[in-house]
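Researcher: Last one for today. Full complex below.
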Amino acid sequence: MKITEVRVETFRYTSDKAKDIQGHAHPADPHDALQSLLTIETDEGVCGYSFGEEVGMAQGLARPLLLGENPFYRERIWQNLYQRQRDGSTLSDRGLDVIDQALWDLAGRALDQPVYRLLGAFRDKVPAYGSTMCGDELEGGLNTPQAYADFALQLVARGYKAIKLHTWNTPTPGAPDVRSDVAACAAVREAVGPDITLMLDPFHYYTRQDALQLGRELERLDFYWLEEPMDEASVSSYIWLTEQLDLQICGPETAKGGLRTRAEWMLRNAADISRVGTQDVGGLTPTMKIYHLAEAFGMQCESHGNGVGNLHALCATSVAGKYHERGLLHPFIDYETPPPWLNALPDPMDDEGMVTVPQGPGLGLDINFDYIRDNLVSS
Amino acid sequence: MKITEVRVETFRYTSDKAKDIQGHAHPADPHDALQSLLTIETDEGVCGYSFGEEVGMAQGLARPLLLGENPFYRERIWQNLYQRQRDGSTLSDRGLDVIDQALWDLAGRALDQPVYRLLGAFRDKVPAYGSTMCGDELEGGLNTPQAYADFALQLVARGYKAIKLHTWNTPTPGAPDVRSDVAACAAVREAVGPDITLMLDPFHYYTRQDALQLGRELERLDFYWLEEPMDEASVSSYIWLTEQLDLQICGPETAKGGLRTRAEWMLRNAADISRVGTQDVGGLTPTMKIYHLAEAFGMQCESHGNGVGNLHALCATSVAGKYHERGLLHPFIDYETPPPWLNALPDPMDDEGMVTVPQGPGLGLDINFDYIRDNLVSS
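Model: Here's the assembly. Have a good evening.
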């Protein structure tokens, strides 16, 4: 089998979300937005698909390397593309992720198997945690500790057994502020009671002392983990914080260097729980390696982001990962309706808070090709 | 798909090899011997196959756990079987390996793909090294340094670009002896010249000082690696030896603990090159994890043993592994004719010393079912 074409189709949809200057998403008035579908075609007719906002440039860079290649040679393709990343101006981890996921999707479609079974399945469903958007100034949104508490009760009623707060971040006025973070966490714990698992993902550039103070309060509130409260480039800060706290520190998430950076963090005990998302490390291929690395050191490694590739990886993982991150959630956002380019949610959750991995071939995305064709901007 | 039966068929063949009291194989007069075929059957008709001398007990233990299970849930099956190993009296790593490889074979046959492509291929062929049997007392065999030199020249003529010596071991009279090891290594280097890569696997229970003395001589002879010259349970000895020598130390090989033991060795710099064979760690599933672990630490990890599962793993590995171990070889043994239960060699080598991974579905073994049926001892 040979790859004969690598296409990107960019299409329009109506979005109710917008990113702030730090890249965090918030509710927004409906507006036009763009999404892209990557298609990898082969001489045997079978295709692989993956979505990504930033895939256009990646496709341009990767196409010459992919054309004529056997799509089952994922390791060879990945290593070649990874080495192309060395010049930081070129292929992003998110772009590489979209390509790698499309190759996995293609393999699964060619063999009529869901990806997690190709990988060697461990389970069909995993517990989710409801992951809130960052705090905002919206009345009825996530603008006060009480607003977080009210929303948390809605999430518990929906079936979530675990909730992760993203609190206020720059550029929201007043943020960052440890006391506000603690107030929101305390209000949520008070509202949901002791049996709901809670995590926090706050401002990412606190000092060591601020992070320690925050962590101590989270210990009192019986939180399950704290993630990325400091710049992850300072591994020493994470070693220091992990030593001080019984509270589990989870990371790295955004630090560059994928598999090897996680190995160094484990070697140095820089966190209690490791972290991986396909979008952060350039695909499902390195994600599985990171779960294997975590297993080698008896460490938990938690999934970052709601991508369907993350869900397949998690269901092929035994010891390492536990939760699927479902969201981002907000009182104004309908998460339960799929985006218009999909006919079904990739991560449907039952009322016990369990998410079942898609059972269709490949990544199992049920793609609305008609919608995409009708809303094409460029191809 | 569900597993409906797990069968072992034991059959007779004529062997020209016998193991000494330490478990090392040597040439022997033709004699009756037993081999076993493990078959995992499913309700969809597709089967997975794997061979192993010791698979009988493993099948008895694993069968209740496998029956009714989906054979694509390899990770779940493997973790369950692995946990059954805790009581050391039960499931051996070799038994677990045969089961895990049969599951991979089944998946590949079900999907009509060679296993290394299911894994995500990196390459189709790898260089082999010719791996000799241990020294003996056989005239014209491997009984003197000159005999090793003569045999090495035959191997070079056959196409090998790399050769690994197994020298004299107990219970051969006079063994172990560092001076004899060095004499054999020197004779081979003298015979083959500087361009052939040479490795040594000597007696496994030398003292630190003997191992250091041996290593210093191998440095002078420009050897590529030294493996298992000391008891691998003494990790401190390996840390010590690795610090002293520029010569690369390769291991662990026989130390128990699979993935996690290798993580500890990497963490402690106990060897320069890691090592993995499916038979040592309980299958292809953990073998891939170990290659991923090695990649995380930028380490080479070399394949142990000529099993076809090792060859598939190696061809799905990018950075970590280099050589296929071909053998064991001896002047009296014909390695190029397949055993009677196979119609073709699993690791055919061209005259450039390259071995191509089988391209058939699953593990790609071309099984002679007629021979097995005609020579059944028990089923």
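The interface with chain B takes residues 70, 72-76, 78-79, 107, 111-113, 117-123, 259-260, 262-263, 267, 285, 288-290, 292-293, 295-298, 316-319 of chain A (CB under 8 Å). The two ends of chain A are 24 Å apart (CA to CA).
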